[in-house]
Structure prediction request, 70 residues.
Amino acid sequence: MLEEQLHKCACCRSSNPNRKAGFVIDHDHSTGQVRGLLCHNCNIGIGQLGDSLSGLMQAVDYLRRHYDNT
Prediction:
């Protein structure tokens, strides 16, 4: 899988896993299906946002409301 992802995080495309043990196997907590390999930061971020699109969209909406265009 890591070769398929060109040795990069499936989310942010960084080649740095940000942990000594390497990339994290990301999976759907409901089905157990593996989605890809993530760096530590993306794995933590997705988990903190509830592992859901609604959590991610709420964060996107928040950032859009507070984005400084200057």
About this structure: The chain has a mean pLDDT of 94.
